[in-house]
């Protein structure tokens, strides 16, 4: 597909242009985004809503001396275009290509690294205080959506931002009445419906902010006028801007998420649009099992913090509107509400991406675990999570979750095991449980996971020389590594562990005691992860053997496919063979 070409003025040139010229530039940028993002895939809906707004901000403020902070970063594409990265768009959604979000290593104009919602106001309050002391002429502009505003951290930040009454802080509320799906709750009641203008003004002025309103966020002259007025106030101010998510893209109009994100698609027809990876995934399997339980058990509730597509919950939301709930972009609310439902005798299931689950750390440990409540979490995207930001990888879950008392932590060995687990769990849930499963499509055929024993592990293949001990998302790699070891004269079995906590220690020790070598495979950080659990088990049993742990060192991992990330971390089977040769000299190629 031929992509749209674009001539971009420098930031200095931008400041000399008339409102009419800036309006035309915004339209050119919109067409560039539609043409290019339809070819590469990316966050298209939110970016189309802020084209004029971002142009106006850069026309009036002096980045990078003035700090422009984008909450989440979903809406940073026009900013990237205006700050010299137009040529990078061809590399979007490629390994080590242009970041989907704002990223400080890309440009001095990216004031923060952002890929999670709700962080901008707290960071902006600190940045503004620092600039007041060191660079008092400069401003901080925080651009946050109405969907992100419901995050607990955003409300905490908003509360404090009003306290520093002489800081040059401009908070731009990008209000398109959408988070990823439609906004819900009190914030939406405040900014939509009858009298939203007076209600919003009363709310923000009541908190202590100056309040300015742009009812058409795509009208360049009004944007320029109100943002200029905000600069003149030189105090914390809310510029409330109404925009349209997906503006200019016809297929976004009736899309449930206004084309928030899509894989490559036909811009004219919308054909091929997909909000997540194509194919049968564990999220699809889990949603099907959940739907069946909801159809037969009125006590089962499904909840999601603004990401129904990631957990394939759209059908549940349509079929069970009273029990399938989108609570907005608020993970703490989702888990806290689930605890309340559990106390009320219900069977709540919170469906969320594990990268966002960590935001509800306190609710998981203090509320769900401490009260030992039957709250179930479906943790989608555990392991490598594709081309979103580095912090989207679900590779930190095992260390912190297995430290929680009363927590049950499970990684199903197969799609069939996942279905069976959900059916059994929701028949009679006891205590909190997190069920982790990966992002990528289920391989066809699935690798043989063997018969899962009641204790929570399986032995699909026996071995003479040692065992490859893995979780379900590394079972394919385990079979590939087994074949490479056979070529080196080594006969390794495979143990696939489904129950991480409680860990089947007695059965595991019984299996591995006759061997001298173990290799653990995990798509997780090694510090405190699955391999650490194995080492702890061996130490507690006073078993001494050679163990090689394959996983992620103490680092953040660049966005990429499963294989690209695995290769970066030295986790491909061929790389593990090299590590074995280094760690156990004179071992490979010797038939014992």
From TrEMBL:
Residues 280-444 form the Transketolase-like pyrimidine-binding domain. Its cofactor is thiamine diphosphate; Mg(2+). Pathway: Metabolic intermediate biosynthesis; 1-deoxy-D-xylulose 5-phosphate biosynthesis; 1-deoxy-D-xylulose 5-phosphate from D-glyceraldehyde 3-phosphate and pyruvate: step 1/1. CDD domains: TPP_DXS, TPP_PYR_DXS_TK_like. It is an enzyme of class 2 (transferase). One of its GO terms (molecular function) is 1-deoxy-D-xylulose-5-phosphate synthase activity. InterPro entries: Dxylulose-5-P_synthase, THDP-binding, Transketo_C/PFOR_II, Transketolase-like_Pyr-bd, Transketolase_C, Transketolase_CS. Keywords: Isoprene biosynthesis, Magnesium, Metal-binding, Thiamine biosynthesis, Thiamine pyrophosphate, Transferase. Its EC number is 2.2.1.7. Signal peptide: none annotated. The keyword Metal-binding applies. The keyword Repeat does not apply. It comes from the Bacteria. PANTHER family: 1-D-DEOXYXYLULOSE 5-PHOSPHATE SYNTHASE-RELATED (PTHR43322), 1-DEOXY-D-XYLULOSE-5-PHOSPHATE SYNTHASE, CHLOROPLASTIC (PTHR43322:SF5). Belongs to the transketolase family. DXPS subfamily. Homodimer. NCBIfam families: PRK05444.2-2 (NF003933). This is 1-deoxy-D-xylulose-5-phosphate synthase.
């Amino acid at each position: 597909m031929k992509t749209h070409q674009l001539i971009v003025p420098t930031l200095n040139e931008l400041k000399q242009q008339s409102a009419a010229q800036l309006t035309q530039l915004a339209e050119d940028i919109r067409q560039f985004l539609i043409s290019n993002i339809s070819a590469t895939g990316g966050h298209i809906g939110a970016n189309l809503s802020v084209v004029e707004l971002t142009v106006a901000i850069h026309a009036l403020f002096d980045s990078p001396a003035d700090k422009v902070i984008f909450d989440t970063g979903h809406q940073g594409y026009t900013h990237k275009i205006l700050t010299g990265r137009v040529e990078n768009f061809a590399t979007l959604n490629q390994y080590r290509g242009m970041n989907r979000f704002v990223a400080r290593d890309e440009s001095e104009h990216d004031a923060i690294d952002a890929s999670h919602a709700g962080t901008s106001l707290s960071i902006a309050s600190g940045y503004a205080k620092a600039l007041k002391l060191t660079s008092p002429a400069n401003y901080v502009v925080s651009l946050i959506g109405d969907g992100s505003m419901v995050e607990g951290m955003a409300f905490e930040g908003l509360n404090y931002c009003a306290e520093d009454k002489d800081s040059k802080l401009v908070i731009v509320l990008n209000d398109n009445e959408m988070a990823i799906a439609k906004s819900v709750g009190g914030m939406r009641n405040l900014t939509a419906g009858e009298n939203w203008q007076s209600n919003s003004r009363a709310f923000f002025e009541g908190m202590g902010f100056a309040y300015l309103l742009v009812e058409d966020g795509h009208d360049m002259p009004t944007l320029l006028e109100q943002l200029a007025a905000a600069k003149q106030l030189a105090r914390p101010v809310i510029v409330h801007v109404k925009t349209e998510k997906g503006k200019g893209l016809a297929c976004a109009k009736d899309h449930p998420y206004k084309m928030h994100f899509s894989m490559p698609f036909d811009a004219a027809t919308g054909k091929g649009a997909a909000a997540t990876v194509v194919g049968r995934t564990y999220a699809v399997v889990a949603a099907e099992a959940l739907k069946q339980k909801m159809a037969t058990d009125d006590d089962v509730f499904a909840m999601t913090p603004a990401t129904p597509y990631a957990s394939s919950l759209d059908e549940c939301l349509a079929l069970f509107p009273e029990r399938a709930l989108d609570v907005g972009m608020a993970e703490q609310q989702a888990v806290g509400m689930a605890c309340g439902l559990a106390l009320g005798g219900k069977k709540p299931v919170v469906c969320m991406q594990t990268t966002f689950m960590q935001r509800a750390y306190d609710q998981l440990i203090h509320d769900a675990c401490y009260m030992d409540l039957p709250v179930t979490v479906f943790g989608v995207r555990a392991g490598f999570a594709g081309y979103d930001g580095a912090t989207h990888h679900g590779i930190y879950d095992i260390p912190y979750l297995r430290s929680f008392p009363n927590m049950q932590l499970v990684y199903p060995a197969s799609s069939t095991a996942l279905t069976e687990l959900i059916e059994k769990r929701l028949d009679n849930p006891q205590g909190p449980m997190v069920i982790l499963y990966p992002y990528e499509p289920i391989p066809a055929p699935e690798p043989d996971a063997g018969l899962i024993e009641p204790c929570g592990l399986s032995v699909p293949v026996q071995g003479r020389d040692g065992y490859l001990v893995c979780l379900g998302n590394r079972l394919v790699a385990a079979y590939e590594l087994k074949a490479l070891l056979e070529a080196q004269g080594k006969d390794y079995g495979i143990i696939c562990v489904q129950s991480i906590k409680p860990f089947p220690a007695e059965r595991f020790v019984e299996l591995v005691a006759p061997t001298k070598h173990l290799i653990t495979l995990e798509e997780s950080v090694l510090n405190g992860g699955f391999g650490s659990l194995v080492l702890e088990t061996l130490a507690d049993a006073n078993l001494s053997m050679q163990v090689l742990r394959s996983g992620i060192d103490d680092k953040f991992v660049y966005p990429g496919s499963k294989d690209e990330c695995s290769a970066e971390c030295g986790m491909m089977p061929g790389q593990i063979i090299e590590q074995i040769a280094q760690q156990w000299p004179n071992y490979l190629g010797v038939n014992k």
